[in-house]
Amino acid sequence: MKCPKHNRILVPKRARYGVRRSCPEPGCTVVLWDGETSTPADADTRAWRRKAHNAFDPLWKKGHISRAKAYRLLCAGLNMPFEATHIGMMSSEQCRKTIAWCMKFSMEGDWKRPALPPGKPPGSSPRGLGEAPEAIPPHPQGEKNRPRPSTPADGSSRLAP
Predict the structure, then answer these.
(1) How many domains is the chain partitioned into structurally?
(2) Between these two residues, 126 and 12, which has the higher pLDDT value?
């Protein structure tokens, strides 16, 4: 992998969290972590990626939803392909959009809603993703003939032993 700014091969070095590759050009801040979900990034982009992780990770780490579901919802919310919806691959602008989406998602409690089925575009969502719930149909013999829970003859709400 090469530095996108200087076209120089990134130099690998062992680090606490794996192999970190950096540009050998003095003063260059481009870094890449080994793995399939990272792309070379300068210091500004890496800072935005950290902010995006700080906004996104609590959604699944606190147990509201699974990590996989959180990423599926994020890719639908940002209208991005699932394969490209990894914070380590995002530009600083995509990270800003991720942070805004996370704030909106957290405030609306959207973790209670089902994830979009694969291939469904946002807006054509299944029931529970912003659509009004179905109304309770009227009783065929009128409201006053609707069955009611029975109560004991003495008017108490206790059940007989």
Answers:
(1) 2
(2) 12
pLDDT in tens, 86-107: 898 899 999 999 999 998 888 7
Shared-domain flag, residues 11 and 31: yes
C-beta contacts of 41-46 below 8 A and 24+ residues apart: 42/5, 44/92, 45/90, 45/91, 45/92, 45/95
Cα 7 off chain centre by: 34
**Other CB atoms within 10 A of residue 122 CB:** 14
Residues 51 and 106 in one domain: yes
Q: Domain limits at 54?
A: 45-117
Task: Indicate whether 155 pLDDT > 80.
Answer: no
